[in-house]
């Protein structure tokens, strides 16, 4: 007799709510992970740092488990089929895991829950990925907040030390398995990438001065914890505890993360439609050649091109530059935000559906709490303000030469064109 702990977006042993509960069940715990073919088969490019990251993080979890005289079991297939196998092989008393809030994950979990229910096996899920779930921070009448500032205010007023206290995990009652089955990247049909997994740490030097330096891309003074938060190799409670102690601005970024998580939960239609319906009327130009130039970083706007090159080369782009390139695509080129969102989803190591979607809709002006459509980022002014001596541009686009790269579109012309297109869309409805 045993219980299963199913790792998903919580690839760590410390401060892990579902794991703590599984270990407290009184039964031996079998730790497992499923490489879900329904997700992996959709990734056309088999050089994918996210998959490599997961595989390496699991290897690291496994070596810690081996120190505790057990081992991780990994599987490759559809979750439901894996549960058929596992429940046939073991006398499973219950399955434990942490909640995943994305629409596809909710469907997957419903299928697994129903299957287990049918076999009389309880499926226990826990809040772990966020401090507050979708329905914990709402307006007085119970409806969701759709504007960040009042949401953040309520979030802070509800926060108590128990919300960010670490969950201690007692690593004793494991199921003794004599061998681990860590599936390799090659087994999955993926290639090794340039990524090296390191257990994430919070760099105090960065967060203490986060508010001063975060907007200057050349300084690279943000934490790069996005991927760790995405796959749960770091606990959100730990981050919030540090943020509370050291930097309120950094805390506000963690609240943005939860804001967009609850928006996606309450308004799943945002996955493919504008939060503000009337923005569906925008007559996007959707010029494929210009889109390709944007993707490659060949727009002739140095900050945009440097950003896209950083993304293409490293899987990361500084937040300030993400805002500039996103605004440029939607407003200067009048290309549908969904094209840019999909490109980021393919390229960003820290890709997260709710954050990516929320921020793209913000940049396009069609989001829940978006910048007003008539505020159009001027890439040149942004460069003067945040990369005055072109240190960022030169890092990612060293061969850039002002004389040789005429802009693909004139700023003033593009600005007027965008204003016309947006105004018309908003008038038509
Ligand atoms: P830090 O600045 O150190 O912030 C710490 C953490 O707070 C981040 O890792 C992230 O989890 C969270 N966070 C910070 N800013 C935001 C924000 N605006 N919205 C939601 N969460 C935030 N962030 C993602 O995690 N995944 C995405 O796919 C993503 N796509 C984006 C697309 C666009 C067009 C824009 C403008 C922003 C996007 N962001 C996304 C938000 C932000 O740019 C990144 O979280 C941040 O740059 C990651 O760097 P960092 O880990 O050093 O973050």
Automatic annotation (TrEMBL):
Residue span, Photolyase/cryptochrome alpha/beta domain: 1-131
Binding site for FAD: 210, 250, 253-260, 350-352
InterPro entries in alphabetical order: Crypto/Photolyase_FAD-like_sf (IPR036134), Crypto/Photolyase_N_sf (IPR036155), Cryptochr/Photolyase_FAD-bd (IPR005101), Cryptochrome/DNA_photolyase_1 (IPR002081), DNA_photolyase_1_CS_C (IPR018394), DNA_photolyase_N (IPR006050), Rossmann-like_a/b/a_fold (IPR014729)
Electron transport recorded as keyword: no
Annotated protein name in UniProt: Deoxyribodipyrimidine photo-lyase
Annotated family: Belongs to the DNA photolyase family.
Cofactor binding: number and manner: Binds 1 FAD per subunit.
Domain of life: Bacteria
The protein's required cofactors: FAD; (6R)-5,10-methylene-5,6,7,8-tetrahydrofolate
Species assigned in the record: Sphingobacterium alkalisoli
Gene Ontology biological process terms in this record: nucleobase-containing compound metabolic process; response to light stimulus; response to stress
